[in-house]
Amino acid sequence: MSRRTAVGLLGAAGMGGLAGCAGGSGGSGSGETGTSTDDSEAEGESTPSPESKTGGRLQAAWFTGSIEELDPPYISVGQYFQLASNVFNGLTTLDDDLSIVGDLAEDWTVSDDGTQYTFQLRDDVTFHNGAEFSAEDVEYTIRRTIEEEAPAAPKLSTLQPLDEGGVEVLGDYEVRLNLTEPNAVLLVYLTRGPGRAATVVSRDAIEEMGADQYSVTPVGTGPFQVTEHQVGSSITLDAHDDYFETDEEGVQLPYLDGIDVQPISEPASLVNALRAGDVQFTNLVPLQNLDQVDQDGSTSASRAPGINWLGVAMNQNREPFGSKQVRRGIAKSIDSERFVETAFFGNALADVGVISKGTNWAWREDKPQDQAYAPEEGKQLIQDGGADGASFAILANSGNLRQAKAIRQQLTEAGFDVEIDQVTSSTYWDRYADLDYDVTVSGSVVDPDPEQGLWNFYRLPDDGGVWNWVNYQSEEVHEMLAEQRRTTDREQRMQLLHDLEDKLIEDVPHAYLSHEDDVAGIRSEVGGFTHTPGLRNFHSVFLQE
């Protein structure tokens, strides 16, 4: 079947706006989800000419202590891939309305049974080191991800074994992926941002500099190249002079000469730097400082719907969290509406489940109430489970400290003896992944399809659950995840996802809290930023006088 008739297949992923045209790598669409900072025409001002947009360096800040991983299939932190998506390309990417568009793939076809994807690739792409891109790079990227068992590898679990023709190089600029069964979300996973299953890497660079160095100064094909990276201090991105994309006037992108990125983990320092003009863009805005950004005449907050989830992660390797009864009691002791006001100043949607409203097609209002706030019922469950007055710590870093404090307050009121165990960002992620914690507040970041907030989190820990850092083990959920992935009928898949969400709400691997609004900070001199939820793409950004 053609790319157009593949809309029916991808409809199961909620991706009715399927497209594969060249030059569509983000920001050119007109959907309602993305918002652009280039609104001078709406204000009655003259629109900047393409030539006047060219040049200058954007000063940007990332709300974290450090950015430690930029190698796409190994990225497990949302803020990291927000930056990496400016360095790399995938076969596909997300447009500003979350539709799938072509990136390195100009076009593609899908077989009638949904198990064969044939991609026609661009022939005008070069890596930052000058090497020419070809189909062999796609094959190498996928093989490396699978053979090294990178965190992104489970997204390719439906690919036929590589030695049995899972990836076929049909020519210099044509590649075919052969699947064992249909995969409703494959094209989402081939995107360069939230997907990362086939975000094309440079074999030459990896072999020359080694994997460790590549993780901090990688070589890609994207609009910007990493020229310097002092971990925990700064990252320097310079424009890729041979980047393939142009604007509607034929002017080569990116407009900027480069981007200077500094991590800033302290909320007040981040916002003060933005307001003072020391930085012109912040990838996030600490919500306690949101009014300062909105009320400053030179800065503004760019908002997009949150396609994510947040919850209280409870390490089932440690008591009393191995008890579902206790976990449910804890969930029912937390008032999510109050949490949203305390932690996010109302800039989130309280919820008892994992599927976000931003996904639209899979959202429902009437979710099971197993985790709904009911303090007396929660207290009884905790007492019956023998956990009344239990002592434990909430692992936190600067990024989620406010959320951790909000949860601590409510759990203390519920009778627990709770401490905050605050550590650095790098230590936090190491300990979280090693299950060296009691409780933490965490979740997903960008889920254009609900599966992205489910698969890696809730598959069995030794079979695809690479982010199952609560040690939740359910054969039923494991199989339900596989079934919804191979279901290409949208209505059937939606029901499977609802059944899956029901089971997760019942089992309480997390006490679900909310879906956080996606907010970035921008100074008035920054134009052309299109706010695709969860992403921070700068290829079309320019600096105004």
Q: What attributes does this structure have?
A:
alpha+beta; 545 residues; seven-stranded mixed beta sheet; 16 helices; globular; disordered N terminus; six-stranded mixed beta sheet; single chain
Structure description:
The protein is 26% helix and 19% strand. The protein is α+β, with helices and mostly antiparallel strands. The strands form five sheets. The chain has a seven-stranded mixed β-sheet. Strands 14-18-13-17-15-16 form a six-stranded mixed β-sheet. Helix 9 runs antiparallel to helix 11, helix 10 (336-344) packs antiparallel against helix 12 and helix 15 (475-486) packs antiparallel against helix 16 (490-507). The chain is globular, with a radius of gyration of 23 Å.
Short summary:
It contains 16 helices and 21 strands. It is of the alpha+beta class and 545 residues long.
The helicity comes to 25-40%
Rg (C-alpha, Å)? 23 Å
Helix/strand/pairing class, anyone?
Answer: alpha+beta
The strand line-up of the biggest sheet is: 8-9-10-1-11-19-12
User: What's the shape?
Assistant: globular
Average residue-wise pLDDT: 90
Topology of this structure?
Layout: H1 7-10, E1 57-62, H2 78-84, E2 92-94, E3 100-102, E4 105-110, E5 116-121, H3 135-147, E6 167-171, E7 174-178, H4 186-189, H5 203-209, H6 211-214, E8 224-230, E9 234-239, E10 258-263, H7 267-276, E11 281-282, H8 290-295, E12 299-304, E13 310-314, H9 324-332, H10 336-344, E14 348-350, H11 375-384, E15 391-396, H12 401-413, E16 417-422, H13 425-433, E17 439-443, H14 455-458, H15 475-486, H16 490-507, E18 510-516, E19 518-523, E20 526-527, E21 542-543
Parallel strand pairs: 1-10, 1-11, 15-16, 15-17
Antiparallel strand pairs: 2-3, 4-5, 5-7, 6-7, 8-9, 9-10, 11-19, 12-19, 13-17, 13-18, 14-18, 20-21
Helix pairs in contact: 9-11, 10-12, 15-16
